[in-house]
Amino acid sequence: MGKMLKITLVHSCIGRPEAQRRVVRGMGLGKVNRSVVLNDTPEIRGMIRKVCHLVAAVEVEGNGK
C-alpha cells in the first residue's frame, strides 16, 4: 500500500492563528491526542511542517493499523 503517516495532535489549537487551525482541521484532527493515518505525500508533509509544533508524525507501513 505504500508509506503512511500517523499524525497525532499533541497540543491544543487554542490561541493559534486561524491558518494553523485550518491546517489541523484539514488533516482531520479535532481534539488533542486524536490520531489520523494519511498517505505520505508532499502536500501532507507540507501541512505537517506548518504545524509541527502542534502535531507528532510517525511513518508507518501499510494502512497503519
Task: Give structural attributes.
single chain; 65 residues; alpha+beta; 28% helix
Report on this model:
The chain is of the alpha+beta class and 65 residues long. Helices cover 28% and strands 29% of the residues. It has two helices and three strands, in the order βαβαβ. A three-stranded antiparallel β-sheet has the order 2-1-3, with no helix packed on it. The longest helix is centred in the middle third of the chain and has 9 residues, at 18-26. The two termini are 12 Å apart.
Q: Provide the β-strand percentage band.
A: 25-35%
Report the structural category. alpha+beta
- The tally of strands reads 3
Indicate the percent of residues in helices: 25-40%
Q: What's the total helix number?
A: 2
Instruction: Describe the largest sheet.
Output: 3 strands, antiparallel
Shape: globular
Q: Helix and strand string, N-terminal first?
A: EHEHE
Average pLDDT figure: 94
Distance between termini?
12 Å
* Poorly predicted tracts of residues: none
User: Strands of the largest sheet, in order across it?
Assistant: 2-1-3
**Nearest-angstrom radius of gyration?**
11 Å
